[in-house]
Design goal:
Helices cover 18% and strands 32% of the residues. With 698 residues, the chain is of the alpha+beta class. It has a domain of 295 residues: Rossmann fold, CATH 3.40.50.1820. Strands 33-1-35-34-36-37-38-39 form an 8-stranded mixed beta sheet, sandwiched between helices. Strands 4, 5, 6, 7 and 8 form a 5-stranded antiparallel beta sheet that branches. It is globular.
Length: 698
């Protein structure tokens, strides 16, 4: 399994020979006092101390006092770095260019997102045709003074008259749904609450939509465990209390539900999920035979064995097209006749190939398949009988993002990006088979002095500042993508590297499974091997090597510095899962048990305890310079993870390198963060690296 790691690592490396530098020594900092409690838990006979348990409550007076003191310390440190202001100015200049999302088509209108450059949130526009002038339909920047309310869900009714949209405040996973009249741009009375991990799908008559919600939580909505999601139908204009309960499983509190109405309006296809497990169930509701005027029919359990991943693509009457990894770890497309659902009668349309199928949708009665080849995209077209039609030519090694289009459309749009290629929107005409640029940004950066390489080559003197970024989990693939912060890093003379790690989805389900549960250590070993390769091949040296990652990637960074602290010069763990013994006790953390395991299991506790970053910090150890980032409203990975990790690491640090934590207020796990906050955060991270990797700015 090691060959693809090395292979992709070469493909994801941006190199530059520019080098600046001079020695800069960090000073020992006066860390805020943090009380050590006497909490000790017994895990299957092993007693584990948790002295900072009180930091799990972010709203207690003691925690708030510690948060304020830590933020003052971090701000004081960063404010003394002269390059910080210049970095913020440069990031602002680089960020200030128009950004477009892929448009989508509904009932003669086009809808698309655009950000003029520095707007905190992108604005949703409507357009009567591709050549007509755009009109503002929904401007999230008007929903809050500081841009911390973001649009998180969108669904336009089939007739194009109504927009169901969800908003989240301060980065929370909690959403509120509203309905807007498209013609007038005004909201209707509909207002739905306590929604998480749900889309909205209209019935074809526009009379209402399906969505999922949790019971109303108690007074700790940001930390309480989320269970008992239920599927509802909301009739337009009704009070939420009158919504129709479509499906629930009181005997399965961890099951979640999502419904999508088919293009022909005949069925509501219900996906049943369990945490982050790739395996799922597929049910459906025949809307034609519903006893309720809209939806109250019998839910049919089509795929109910929880044995594989099944993604509904579309249908021709009772025949469902499904993307699955059943007997195909790199996925295939099958057809299931719901009148004869026996497996012996399934038809394979697109077989498994050498590359992973990321997604498939039907546009212009054609399967549009987004493949992953060595962690970069390939876009391929197939007839509905599975016949291969053509490969679409992409500009360079990169990633296809959103692909938009409907079953009967003559054209589709897709977004493409790469490390040095800003997100560009392309239009493909199925009749002429021609691809054209629809929207291309202009940015204040000349990429000609840099290149994305697929092969290794040696830098000049082996002392380039290098940033190694990783994730490695949940079947998520890291592919080439554009980042303004990466551009600034390159201009500083840096090397940027992204290794493919087991646990991701770059090579299919076998690759994913090789980095989960008791095999999670493989992910950390892969990451360390990438760092050692960079050093061995002369790209950098330990004192000049920074590592970063967020969420599961924050766990990765935490494990790397606690296992190999001497290997790195700086670390930037963001919103990380640091306490592997208690993660499942908060919000949606229980859902990750299918990926990590649980300390409640006597069989799984030992390996979790062995690598848990919080529990492997050793007093008297010299750790690299570390800037931990989190947010006080993160209800995905609750901030207690980072709080306890920071307090423990500060107490253990034996070297002069700083251990700081930056705690953002009115922010969450990252989604919907306003542009102003992103720029400030990235400038702070780069300034931290300037100081601690001894980088002299040009």
């Amino acid at each position: 399994m090691s060959t693809p790691l090395r292979h992709h690592f070469a493909r994801s490396l941006i190199l530059t020979g520019i080098l600046f530098g001079g020695a800069v020594s960090a000073q020992t900092l006066p860390y805020p006092p943090a009380r050590k409690g006497d909490v000790v838990d017994d895990y299957h006979g092993t007693r584990v101390a948790d002295p900072y348990r009180w930091l799990e409550d972010p709203d207690s007076p003691e925690s708030r006092g510690w948060i304020d003191a830590e933020n003052r310390l971090t701000e004081g440190y960063l404010s003394q770095i002269p390059e910080r202001a210049a970095l913020r100015k440069r990031l602002t200049a680089l960020w200030n260019y128009p950004k477009y999302g892929a448009p989508f088509h509904k009932a003669g209108r086009y809808f698309f997102f655009k950000n003029d450059g520095l707007q905190n949130q992108s604005v949703l526009y409507k357009q009567a045709s591709l050549t007509a002038g755009p009109e503002t339909l929904l401007d999230p920047n008007l929903l809050s003074e500081d841009g911390t309310v973001a649009v998180s869900t969108l669904a336009v009714s089939e007739d194009g008259r109504r927009l169901a949209y969800g908003t989240s405040a301060s980065g929370s996973d909690w959403e509120e749904f509203r309905v807007r009249d498209v013609a007038s741009g005004r909201d209707l009375p509909d207002h739905l609450q306590w929604i998480k991990f749900s889309g909205a799908s209209w019935t074809k008559d526009g009379a209402g939509f399906f969505y999922s919600r949790y019971p109303q939580p108690g007074d700790k909505a940001l930390t309480d465990v989320n269970r008992f999601q239920r599927l509802y139908y909301h009739p337009l204009g009704a009070d939420q209390a009158a919504d129709v309960l479509v499906y629930e499983r009181s005997d399965q509190p961890d099951w979640g539900f999502g419904a999508d109405v088919t293009d022909d309006g005949r069925y509501a296809v219900v996906t049943v999920w369990l945490g982050t497990d790739r395996r799922n169930r597929v049910y459906y509701l025949d809307l034609k035979d519903a006893r309720h005027p809209r939806v109250k029919g019998e839910v049919v359990r089509l795929l109910d064995e929880f044995d594989a991943s099944y993604g509904f693509i579309g249908n021709d009457g009772p025949v469902f097209y499904v993307l699955t990894d059943l007997d195909a770890p790199r996925k295939r497309v099958i057809a299931i006749d719901t009148r004869h659902p026996e497996r012996s009668r399934w038809r394979e349309l697109i077989p498994q190939g050498d590359d992973v199928i990321e997604s498939v949708q039907i546009i212009h009665d054609t399967f549009v398949a987004n493949y992953l080849h060595d962690a970069h995209s390939r876009l391929r077209l197939f007839a509905l009988d599975g016949r291969f039609l053509e490969d679409l030519t992409l500009p360079t090694l990169g990633s296809v993002g959103t692909v938009s289009g409907e079953r009967k459309d003559d054209a589709m749009f897709y977004a493409f990006t790469s490390f040095l290629y800003p997100t560009t929107i392309f239009r493909y005409d199925f009749k002429t088979r021609q691809t054209s640029v629809f929207k291309a940004p202009t940015i204040d950066f000349d990429p000609s002095g840099y290149e994305t390489e697929q092969v290794f080559y040696r830098s000049r003197d082996g002392t380039n500042p290098t940033y190694l970024y990783g994730y490695g989990g949940f079947n998520i693939s890291l592919t080439p993508s554009f980042s303004v912060a990466t551009l600034a890093w390159l201009e500083m003379g840096g090397v940027y590297a992204v290794p493919t790690l087991r646990g991701g989805g770059e090579y299919g389900e076998e690759w994913h499974e090789a980095g989960m549960h008791e095999k999670k250590q493989n992910v950390f070993d892969d990451f360390v091997a990438a760092a050692e390769y960079l050093i061995k091949e002369g790209y950098t040296a330990p004192a000049r090597l920074a590592i970063g990652g967020g969420s599961n990637g924050g766990l990765l960074v935490g494990a790397a510095i606690t296992q190999r602290p001497e290997l790195f010069g700086a670390a930037l763990p963001a919103v990380g899962v640091m306490d592997m013994l208690r993660f499942h006790k908060f919000t949606i953390g229980w859902a990750w048990v299918t990926e990590y395991g649980s300390a409640d299991s006597a069989a799984q506790f030992p390996y979790l305890y062995k690598y848990s970053p919080l529990h492997n910090i050793r007093p008297g150890t010299r750790y690299p310079a570390t800037l931990i980032t989190t947010a006080d409203h993160d209800d995905r990975v609750v901030p207690g993870h980072s709080f306890k990790f920071a307090a423990t690491l500060q107490a253990a640090q034996a070297g002069p390198q700083p251990v700081l934590i930056e705690i953002e207020t009115k922010a969450g796990h990252g989604a919907g963060k306003p542009t102003s906050k992103i720029i400030e955060e990235q400038a702070d991270r780069l300034a931290f690296l300037v100081r601690n990797l001894a980088i002299a700015m040009p």
